Amino acid sequence: MKTTVVNLRTYKDPNVVRADRTTSFGNPFHIGKDGNREMVVSKHKIWLIMWLKRGEEIIIGGYSNKWVCQHVKQLRGRKLGCWCVPRRCHVENLIWLLRCKND
């Protein structure tokens, strides 16, 4: 089953796994304070890469890149919910990470 992303505003399903800031899978980077949408999605990916490639745990506002990388497999094949979709979203990075972990 394919991992997909749905918008929490419009998609109502109790089986959706929330990947917003109410969970540990949320993006610690905020539009405005940390840059525009493109920048915060890019910063999120770099944050994940810091653990994947360097083993450097970075905790921002209670969010841990190490934790995300160690637990992302539980998202495989699930519907992931965030508020951004269809706009660019950090959940794209979680799906990218799942593909990396599949190799």
Description:
- With 103 residues, this protein is an alpha/beta fold.
- It has one domain.
- Helices cover 36% and strands 14% of the residues.
- It contains three helices and five strands; from the N terminus they run ββαββαβα.
- It has helices at 37-54, 65-71, 91-102; strands at 4-7, 17-18, 59-60, 63-64, 79-82.
- Strands 1-5-2 form a three-stranded parallel β-sheet, with helices on one face. A two-stranded antiparallel ribbon has the order 3-4.
- The chain starts with a strand and ends with a helix.
Question: Keywords, please?
Answer:
three-stranded parallel β-sheet; alpha/beta
Structural class: alpha/beta
Major beta-sheet overview: 3 strands, parallel
- Into which percentage range does the β-strand content fall? 5-15%
Helix content: 25-40%
- Low-pLDDT parts are none
Order of strands in the sheet with the most strands? Answer: 1-5-2
Mean pLDDT across the residues is 96
Based on CA inertia axes, which overall geometry fits?
globular
Multimeric organization: single chain
- Give the CA-CA distance, first to last residue: 17 Å
In DSSP terms (H or I, runs of 4 or more residues), the helix count works out at: 3
Number of strands: 5
Order of helices and strands: EEHEEHEH
Computed CA radius of gyration, to the nearest angstrom: 13 Å
> What number of domains?
1
